[in-house]
């Protein structure tokens, strides 16, 4: 049984992915990490796999990584979803105007790739 050792950039603890064969593709590593860490099937981020020794990023999902390699994983947001904290802040500001009798000002707020007119 072969394995790959990985860790997230901000974590000091290494985890292991076990597989059969001498090589594993970058795409298979990403799927295994998502499953092992229970990150969901359609996350709002993508994983970047980086060789821990050379700091070379593996950009192609079909690229082969040899067994016993040590890689670093970085989460990169896709930018197409609004975070829960951003939605909560928008909701709170709307609730404040509903509770007061003052007229609500017209404001344009930029949230990632979306323009929300409040």
Throw out a few tags for this protein.
118 residues, alpha+beta, five-stranded mixed sheet, 2 helices, 36% strand, elongated
Question: Layout of SSEs?
Answer:
Blueprint: E1 2-8, E2 15-19, E3 23-25, H1 26-36, E4 45-51, E5 57-58, E6 64-66, E7 70-77, H2 84-99, E8 108-111, E9 114-117
Parallel strand pairs: 1-7
Antiparallel strand pairs: 1-2, 3-6, 4-5, 4-7, 8-9
What do you see in this structure?
- The chain has 118 residues and is an alpha+beta fold.
- It contains two helices and nine strands; from the N terminus they run βββαββββαββ.
- The longest helix has 16 residues, at 84-99.
Count every beta strand, where a strand is a DSSP E run of 2 or more residues.
Answer: 9
Please write the string of helix (H) and strand (E) elements: EEEHEEEEHEE
Q: What is the beta-strand fraction?
A: 35-45%
Distance between the termini: 57 Å
Low-confidence blocks of residues: none
Order of the strands making up the biggest sheet: 2-1-7-4-5
| Percent helix | 10-25%
Number of H- or I-type helical stretches: 2
Largest sheet: 5 strands, mixed
Radius of gyration, taken over Cα atoms and rounded to an integer in Å:
21 Å
Helix/sheet category: alpha+beta
Gross geometry = elongated
Mean pLDDT: 78
